[in-house]
Design a protein that fits this description.
310 residues; alpha/beta; Aminopeptidase; eight-stranded mixed beta sheet; two-stranded antiparallel ribbon; 32% helix; globular; Peptidase_M14; metallocarboxypeptidase activity; zinc ion binding; Peptidase
Length: 310
């Protein structure tokens, strides 16, 4: 196993046992800093791919009133969309700090998407939360988690705008692969912040060392999940369960796979009625994996899924 932080931690903002109000959220936002550039690292790559894919600016996040920037939101689709072909959705950067999800989506476009375009329409939204990408954050500027916000009347514009875009395409998705990471900062920062925001007691989980998947318990599709695991294990190691047979505190239902209730939790993988859905989880802080392997693991997850479906 990797990090074993299990102690209860006091977060710097707020009063224990009391949910945050407007002042605490403002204090949290004031503490955030831009650490990297969405324009230089993501938008520039999208522009480079524009000659090969249709690029859609499906919205923007105007966070200037919150002291941040105005971020254009992009999705790319394979050319010659054909409604007689099944449609696949790949999403990255729902949690902006999860770097390999963003760059895995872009690398899949660069290296592989065209190879599958004869069989599938492909939609890729590589960075759903650009402010989170720049500040290396799980939440948006309102201290809202986009990956709990894929619901009607969403409180997160990141979730609302991509859902509206997918609906505007008027396609039935066959599959949706949502690219994520589980990092040491989940325990050192994000879970303590969540507990503080909600006025609850925080107890961290053990973070798995390696790649794993989160399937939708309403439609797990175990053979689909297994095919992705087989593809990824050619690139990096698969997480082993802890001594209780769990990953991130959840029972492992098959090697490298746990399951969540996607729609009740408002998860991105629950945004549609797709038959085949999964959320990837890479561990970038592993001593046994490099950042390059993490990106390649995300790519292998997508190609493994498409090879199974094809």
């Amino acid at each position: 196993m990797s990090t074993q932080i299990t102690s209860e931690q006091r977060y710097a903002i707020g009063t224990p046992g009391q949910p945050w109000g407007a002042q605490e959220k403002a204090d949290w936002l004031a503490a955030q800093e831009v650490k990297r550039s969405y324009q230089d690292e993501v938008v520039s790559e999208i522009e480079r791919l524009a000659g090969r894919f249709d690029v859609h600016q499906y919205g923007e996040l105007d966070y200037q009133a919150q002291g941040a920037s105005c971020y254009p939101l992009y999705a790319l689709t394979t050319v010659d969309f054909d409604l007689d072909k099944p449609t696949i959705l790949v999403t990255g950067g729902v949690h902006g700090y999860e770097t390999s999800g963003v760059h895995g989506a872009l690398r899949f476009l660069e290296l592989h998407a065209e190879d599958y375009s004869a069989d599938f329409n492909i939609i890729v939204a590589p960075c759903i939360s650009p402010w989170g990408y720049e500040t290396i954050n799980r939440w948006n500027v309102f201290a809202v988690d986009p990956n709990r916000s894929f619901i009607a009347d969403s409180p997160a514009p990141e979730a609302a705008q991509v859902m509206e875009f997918i609906q505007s395409l008027d396609v039935d998705l066959l599959a949706h692969i949502d690219l994520h990471e589980t990092t040491d900062t989940d325990n050192s920062e994000f879970r303590p912040a969540l507990a503080a925001r909600d006025g609850k007691l925080n107890t961290n989980w053990n973070i798995p060392d390696g790649f794993y998947l989160v399937g939708n318990s309403a439609q797990l599709q175990p053979e689909f999940q297994a095919a992705i695991i087989r593809s990824v294990e050619q690139v990096t190691h698969i997480a082993e369960p802890d001594e209780e047979g769990r990953l991130i505190g959840t029972p492992m239902v098959q090697p490298g796979v746990v399951e969540y209730e996607a729609k009740p939790l408002g998860l991105c993988m629950g945004l549609s009625q797709a038959q085949f859905v999964t959320t990837t989880e890479v561990y970038p802080d592993s001593a046994n994996a490099t950042p390059e392997q993490c990106v390649n693991a995300q790519v292998a997850a997508v190609t493994g899924a498409l090879d199974f479906l094809r």
